[in-house]
């Protein structure tokens, strides 16, 4: 059948905001009380964060410099906020790493200016990160500070190579459980070691030693250091809850208060010590003295940890605004350049970090200028206010690191990973980092994650059910590979001899070992008098293997034919095995009973939650009136389910006029409109309609059919009136009379519906729409019927226009 096409409207092209990132990992080397989402979500940052991102679009049209200047009134105040957060954190991280304090400030400057200018994530702030504290402290202890600076520079070169070769996105394949376990382990190490400094002591070189000495440290008398540390920790915890002063960053307020307390009471305790000549504080990097493999591993460790933290932090920052997404490879190049510069100048390694970045976004930053300016403010602060920095107690900086370390151990992440059955990976990584070192801990976590994924990919669920006289039912789900063969054969051998066995294969992969084991069992079982029927539900792995056409690639789950195929197509699988003699073949059960059994055993659990919601009342939106023809399945062609359609089916999809006295259809129409409040009534005709054949060919046999089809006489009259101008297709052929009558019948039933007062009133009020539809069975296509012309419009074309 050829049908006219409606002209397609020209779409207006518009630029939409890019989608938000959906990566589930949300790392942080400086976790705050704000927890980042671990599931895909729409941006929920404050409105000024949304405004900040919208300014990134016009750069190509206005030029970079005018764009930066136009947004300077937003970036300038936000850069000051980030600067105030960065100073105490940089000093604390340097102290915890065993590096010169000047190195922390230097790296903050380099990270802000270099990574800020080159980075692919404009609002990501780069600087010294708590996540690298343990790594740097270990390197300083092994090779000294100058050699550690050389390792940092080499790690920067490696990051540059990784970025240039465009492997930045590969870092996102690392399991979030490993990342969170690594950060939690680092947080625990930092918190335990820095707690000694808060108490006025010195940390040991290992976590176990710090834990061993901690009780003695707690009962010791370190009044001044403990007082300053306690003031800092209390303010860090309380300050964000004070709305009046929350505009001032909590780390800055806590360190400032601790410094004032120490100065007012003239407390004698260690403080920040900077060189008189700042340039003399710069350390020239040196080549490490040690085994080449150990040095290479150190470079790789710094580069890997810094890269993963930076890239995942960039993704996390993407969730805080709705602007352009981060260019991860470009960001990796920028991080490499920043670490190369930081190492060459004698600074700490840097990464993109969350605390400073979230402060940047929430303060209203719009461009990368905020990140660059924050680095310049730190440089100016160091040059002009050295005396003020030297008043800060080291125990205050250590207290900041204790709170950061504790927050890295996130209970929210633990609960999420427990629900996703990834907690074992988290625990192994955490313990590995705490008890050994960061690289070994990560490798252990990755190993457990791989083993867990391998188990899940190759795990097969085997369920055996004894149905008594009806035989056995074996259900296999998952991937059938050699790892499952032992358990599979064990379960199959438990089935008694001579039974009728139905084996359902819900598998997405079957290797040769699994096929051979199962096939040999089946042949042997049938030789001993049993009957084995193999039913493949999602794919045909077994069938292809038995015919010498085994598949090599894993298949995706497919729709079971039970959802749409006739009984005759899938119930033949329940017949007897071809290998069994005729007298032993099992008689097929009644199709209806078998279908009911399939529903009860397989599909009822899936649909039960939806039916439970509908148990109290139905809320359909459509009255779907169609023919009783068995080939027309309303829920199939409309992709609907329970509770969606209020259906009326009869011979010829007829709607007698309201004054014709047919109570059955009239009652359904009134109930649907007046009680259920449907918003649409669909009249659906179809091709090869037997009722319309009878109307064209003369009176059908049977008094009831003859009486019913009298309601189709107005459709026949309409058809003959339209026959004066028969519809033709693009090839000039006339549309068959039967199909034209089916379409005319749909239009006539829509007119009959308007004879019902409730329908007519609802249409006039705009509460109800009447829709004509035509289903072509042979092509499985649905058309909408134009109520004025009777022309057919393919639904596929309407959906695409």
Name the beta content range.
5-15%
Give start-end ranges of low-pLDDT stretches: 1-58, 573-586, 724-733
- Strands of the widest sheet, in order across it, are 8-7-9-10-11-12
Largest sheet: 6 strands, mixed
Query: What is the chains' assembly state?
Result: single chain
Helices and strands: which structural class? alpha/beta
Average pLDDT confidence is: 79
General shape: elongated
Provide the number of structural domains.
Answer: 3
Overview of the structural elements:
This protein has 801 residues and is an alpha/beta fold. It has 33 helices and 12 strands. Strand 7, helix 26 and strand 8 form a beta-alpha-beta unit.
Chain-wise SSE layout:
Blueprint: H1 47-54, H2 59-62, H3 64-70, H4 72-97, H5 101-118, E1 125-128, H6 133-143, H7 145-164, H8 176-198, H9 207-219, H10 223-238, H11 250-264, H12 292-318, H13 328-345, E2 350-353, H14 354-362, H15 369-384, H16 386-389, H17 394-408, H18 411-419, H19 423-435, H20 438-458, E3 460-466, E4 472-480, H21 485-493, E5 500-510, H22 512-527, E6 531-536, H23 541-546, H24 567-570, H25 591-614, E7 622-627, H26 634-637, E8 645-650, H27 663-676, E9 680-686, H28 690-697, H29 703-709, H30 713-722, H31 737-753, H32 757-764, E10 769-776, E11 781-785, E12 792-794, H33 795-800
Parallel strand pairs: 4-5, 5-6, 7-8, 7-9, 9-10
Antiparallel strand pairs: 1-2, 3-4, 10-11, 11-12
Helix pairs in contact: 4-5, 4-6, 4-11, 4-14, 4-15, 4-17, 5-13, 5-15, 6-7, 7-12, 7-13, 8-9, 8-17, 8-19, 8-20, 10-11, 10-17, 12-13, 19-20, 21-22, 30-31
């Amino acid at each position: 059948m050829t049908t006219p096409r409606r002209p397609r409207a020209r779409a207006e092209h518009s630029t939409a905001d890019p989608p938000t990132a959906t990566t589930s990992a949300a790392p942080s080397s400086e976790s705050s009380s704000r927890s980042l989402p671990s599931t895909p979500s729409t941006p929920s940052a404050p409105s000024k964060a949304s405004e900040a991102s919208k300014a990134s679009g016009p750069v190509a049209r206005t030029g970079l410099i005018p764009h930066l200047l136009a947004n300077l009134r937003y970036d300038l105040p936000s850069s000051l906020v980030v600067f105030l957060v960065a100073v105490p954190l940089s000093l604390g991280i340097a102290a915890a790493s065993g590096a010169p304090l000047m190195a922390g400030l230097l790296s903050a400057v380099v990270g802000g200016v270099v990574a800020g200018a080159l980075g692919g994530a404009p609002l990501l702030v780069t600087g010294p990160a708590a996540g690298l504290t343990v790594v740097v402290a270990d390197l300083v202890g092994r090779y000294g500070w100058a050699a550690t600076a050389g390792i940092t520079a080499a790690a920067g070169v490696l990051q540059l190579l990784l970025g240039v070769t465009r492997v930045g996105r590969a870092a996102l394949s690392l399991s979030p459980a490993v990342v969170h376990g690594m950060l939690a382990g680092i947080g625990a190490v930092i918190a335990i070691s820095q707690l000694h400094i808060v108490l006025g002591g010195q940390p040991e070189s290992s976590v176990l030693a710090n834990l061993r000495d901690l009780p003695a440290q707690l009962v010791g008398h370190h009044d001044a250091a403990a007082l300053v540390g306690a003031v800092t920790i209390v303010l860090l915890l309380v300050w964000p809850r004070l709305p009046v002063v929350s505009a001032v960053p909590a780390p800055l307020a806590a360190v400032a208060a601790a410094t004032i307390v120490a100065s007012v009471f003239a407390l004698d305790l260690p403080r920040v010590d900077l060189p008189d000549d700042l340039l003399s504080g710069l350390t020239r990097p040196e080549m490490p003295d040690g085994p080449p493999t150990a040095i290479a591993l150190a470079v790789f460790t710094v580069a890997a940890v810094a890269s993963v933290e930076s890239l995942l932090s960039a993704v996390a920052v993407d969730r805080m605004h709705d602007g352009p997404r981060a260019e991860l490879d470009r960001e990796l190049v920028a991080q490499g350049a920043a670490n190369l510069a930081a190492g060459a100048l004698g600074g700490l390694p840097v990464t993109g970090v969350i605390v400073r970045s979230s402060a940047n976004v929430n303060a209203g930053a719009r461009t990368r200028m905020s990140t660059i300016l924050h680095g310049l403010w730190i440089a100016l602060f160091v040059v002009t206010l050295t005396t003020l920095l030297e008043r800060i107690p080291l125990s205050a900086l250590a207290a900041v690191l204790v709170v950061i370390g504790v927050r890295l151990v996130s209970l929210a992440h633990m609960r999420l990973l427990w629900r996703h059955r990834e907690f074992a990976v988290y625990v192994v990584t955490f313990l590995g980092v705490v008890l050994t070192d960061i690289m070994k801990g990560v490798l252990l976590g990755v190993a457990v994650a791989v083993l867990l994924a391998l188990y899940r990919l190759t795990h097969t669920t085997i369920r055996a059910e004894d149905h008594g006289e009806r035989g056995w039912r074996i259900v296999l789900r998952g991937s059938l590979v050699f790892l499952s063969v032992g358990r599979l054969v064990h379960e199959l051998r438990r089935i008694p001899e001579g039974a009728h066995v139905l084996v359902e294969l819900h598998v997405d992969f079957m290797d040769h070992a699994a096929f051979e084991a199962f096939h040999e069992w089946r042949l042997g079982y049938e030789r001993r008098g049993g009957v084995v029927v193999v039913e493949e539900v999602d794919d045909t792995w077994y069938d292809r293997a038995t015919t010498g056409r085994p598949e090599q690639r894993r298949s995706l789950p497919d729709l079971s034919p039970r959802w749409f195929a006739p009984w005759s197509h899938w119930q033949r699988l329940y017949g007897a095995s071809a290998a069994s003699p005729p007298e032993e073949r099992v008689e097929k059960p009644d199709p209806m009973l078998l279908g009911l059994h399939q529903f009860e055993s397989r599909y009822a659990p899936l649909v039960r939650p939806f039916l439970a919601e509908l148990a109290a009342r139905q809320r359909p939106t459509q009255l779907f009136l169609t023919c009783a023809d068995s080939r027309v399945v309303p829920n199939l062609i409309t992709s609907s389910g329970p509770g969606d359609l209020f259906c009326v089916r009869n011979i010829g999809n007829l709607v007698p006029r309201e004054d014709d006295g047919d109570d059955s259809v009239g009652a359904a129409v009134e109930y649907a409109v007046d009680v259920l409040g449907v918003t649409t009534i669909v009249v659906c005709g179809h091709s090869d309609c037997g009722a319309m054949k009878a109307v064209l060919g003369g009176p059908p046999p049977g008094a009831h059919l003859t009486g019913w089809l009298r309601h189709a006489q107005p459709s026949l009259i309409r058809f003959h009136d339209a026959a004066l101008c028969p519809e033709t297709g693009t090839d000039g052929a006339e549309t068959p009379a039967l199909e034209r009558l089916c379409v005319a019948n749909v239009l006539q039933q829509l007119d009959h519906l308007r004879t019902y007062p409730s329908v007519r009133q609802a249409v006039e009020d705009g509460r109800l729409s009447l829709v004509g539809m035509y289903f072509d069975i042979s092509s499985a296509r649905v058309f909408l019927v134009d109520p004025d012309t009777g022309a057919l419009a393919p639904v596929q074309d309407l959906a695409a226009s």
